[in-house]
Design brief:
Blueprint: E1 2-7, H1 17-33, E2 36-42, H2 49-63, H3 69-72, E3 103-112, E4 115-119, E5 126-128, E6 137-145, E7 148-152, E8 162-166, H4 169-173, E9 180-189, E10 201-203, H5 211-214, H6 218-221, E11 224-226, H7 238-251
Parallel strand pairs: 1-2, 1-10, 2-8, 9-10, 9-11
Antiparallel strand pairs: 3-4, 3-6, 4-5, 6-7
Helix pairs in contact: 1-2, 1-7
Length: 255
Amino acid sequence: MVAVAFPWSLFSEETDPKIYAYRVGTLARALAIYRVEEVYLYGDGVGTRRNAERLRKLLEYQECPQYLRKRVFRLDRDLRYAGVMPPLRAPHHKVHSPKEGEVREGYVVRRSRNGALVDVGADRLARTRWRFKPHERVTVRIVSEDPLEVEPAEPEEYWGYRVRIVNELNEVLREFKEGIIVTSRYGEDVREVEFKSPVKCLVFGSSEVSVLDVDPGVRDEYPVINFVPNQGVQVVRTEEAVHTTLAVLNYLGLI
């Protein structure tokens, strides 16, 4: 599992809400391509919690299977341009009817006398004897198609990411005892780094603030690495840096 952390100011410079949504969608694609499971949004002293909430909504909307979105999300002004985000097409984003034996995401609509009723993207609700808590997403296996029945299950492949908002970067760093890397154009050239262990968490800045500005002390505690040496543009956007960084680490077998 690999986690990533972004500041509250991420994309806050973007004034066009449609382009903002598209950039978030591009970021979500990168996270899914490289199997990121945890996303942290940390306070940086520049961005606002309001922007962090907006980011969280769009990232969570994109991660949610299409057939559950109307159940999980209410009408929200922050999601009005979610349609411009490119489809994630992760393994849990099923586009076919439920098949016996497969694992799917579901949404608990309500409890029943003998268990609960779950929406799994079929033309009818699935029954289960498990008393799930209503109005929550659950991961289930299709036990039978007719009647449609499900049971709790654990996914055996990449199953999306979770998003958490935290007040400061230190809250993220305390979650991991090792395997933390800070990314910065002022870091050590990645071609000169000798990696000794898998990477657990990558910390990114934004166009508004670098990680070293948020907490200069991280340079003394964690590796600070430049994954885009000799960059040919003035600014590498965060979503571009994420793609590049994760691609390098994936190639090296470190995530």
